[in-house]
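Reply to dn_fold:

You asked what the input looked like. This is it:
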Amino acid sequence: MDGLADAAAPGDLARAIGFTHAFARRRAPVEVPVPGGFAVLDDRFPGSYDDNKLIVWSGDPDADELLRAADDVLAERAHRLVCVDDDRLGTTLAPAFAAAGYEHETNLVMAYRGGIPHDPPAADRLELPELLPVLRRDWRQVLPQAPDDVIDGLARRVERRLRGAGTAGTAGTAGMVGFRGVRAGDGEDGGAGEIAARADLYVDGGVAQIESVFTGEQHRGRGHARALMTALLAEAAEAELIFLVADAADWPKDFYGRLGFEPLGSTHAFLRV
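and this is what came back:
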């Protein structure tokens, strides 16, 4: 990145959405064509919305087609999730999905337009043996009544994300999937403190996505997320495009805006459980 706060370059939205589609395809054990896009399935994690969903963006499939496709493809799942990565199409489909009992969420695709951070704080590289207990802790806080096997499954979904890196292509390099975290001071006996905030970083083909930013409940309000984001932006500084996806109705989008992210466009998600 050149660090200039320019207006959104033409094609950045399409490039970001294309990145998420390629990542979803690489990590999914099963891909199924559906009107206007494709679906991904993972029998190992049938309760994971993100691993079992329809992704639609092209053509003009009507709502009835997509509702039938969701029922057919996700017949063995307890949920229905249809992600529409075209703002016009998603807006058009919204009334029919609402009538069918689906909840509607609008997301913002946001690109970083700020400068390259100088002297960023360090973020630790997290390997799965350390990350999984942190994920279980965090999911337990979010879902205190959930059975242990549900919590374990939600945590272990992260293993599939490693597939998103793909394999080396013609340039001889594969993409990167990394897990990063910042710690809450020193731990007992002078050792490293526990992970206070964590996030994923995906890099491929000059594009970087920051995903799954989360701060533990007991560590919030202490600047850990800002420190982590600064470290990630510095790590991804060579990318031509750095982006993330944020809920248009929730406060983190404003936090990302203060860091230098600007909206590129909107996508839609329709969920029924």
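Confidence is low (pLDDT under 50) at residues 2-8, 168-172, 186-191.
Hope that clears it up.
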